[in-house]
Amino acid sequence: ARITLRQLLDHAAEHDYGLPAYNINNMEQGLAIMEAADAVNAPVIIQASRGARSYANDIVLTRLIDALVELYPHIPVCMHQDHGNGPATCATAIQYGFTSVMMDGSLEEDAKTPASYDYNVDVTRRVTEMAHSCGVSVEGELGVLGSLETGMGEAEDGHGFEGKLDHSALLTDPDQAVDFVKATKVDALAIAMGTSHGAYKFTRQPDGEVLAMNVIEEIHRRLPNTHLVMHGSSSVPQDLQDIINQYGGQMPQTWGVPVEEIQRGIKNGVRKVNIDTDNRMAMTGAIRKVLAEKPGEFDPRAYLKPAKEAMRKLCIERYQAFGCEGQASKI
Ligand code: G3H
Ligand code: 13P
Ligand code: NA
Ligand code: ZN
User: Fold this and answer.
1) Is the domain covering 5-330 a CATH 3.20.20.70 domain?
2) What is the ipTM of this complex?
């Protein structure tokens, strides 16, 4: 059945676990997530970006989610708008049956330019009022996702805010976080602590210099009852890099967020962990392998089924690592 983000994260907080939020763009990804959740009895957060909604089409995506919920009636499913860029995106998500929206007011509506704090508070507060009146949860974001290695932020088009932000401005300020949650009444707060979206987060195994988990600990000390969200939380596993490169891919060596660091976050109030890149890599590695080993193959099912299986396996691993196993039937 459908459930709000608030209800899911309240349960996760009460029982000391974290929930991966997996991005969806198509049927294979939706089935992979639900089959994984069913295998370990985990609650589900599925999220769609603006790009996903336009790729899959809102009506197709809506019917797909309806089907997934109907297929697994015993699994609580939160359907979440990832990185909403303004009230209109959040409102249409609600019209399409999403039970949670992210208003990402850390960026202007163009989703590229870093926004002022006052803009962020104002737009997030307005979305929260609107969403809560519809029984829908809200995630806000404070701070700028980006790399502490380069001191650069990150925009949706992949270009950094070079020169526009200094190193420390990328991290969420704990004092501001307290003020923001009070002013906006968000159900969950996404914070910036050195991660970025995509595969190229770190040029070496991250340490405290580039992955500022201490920021999470400090914010959790000040806001013990606020559900924290980690974006850019793919681990970019070495074995997936290797499979992709073994079968004709060209991904330069890179490092993501180690699962143990996410587990440390979960001990400090992190309840929602956004993962897209790892699933993209799992699917792509499986597809490359089939196409390389069977160059005569042209039935999409021959590579999409292994792709779905690879994503299912990864989703199960994260559900287990974050403590979700068996939680679905307890909600
Ligand atoms: O926020 C980033 C997610 O990985 C979604 O990416 O905007 O390419 O769909 P996307
Ligand atoms: P990754 O690119 O690390 O998977 O992050 C996804 C994300 O934060 C979606 O909002
Ligand atoms: Na989100
Ligand atoms: Zn994100």
Assistant:
1) yes
2) 0.98
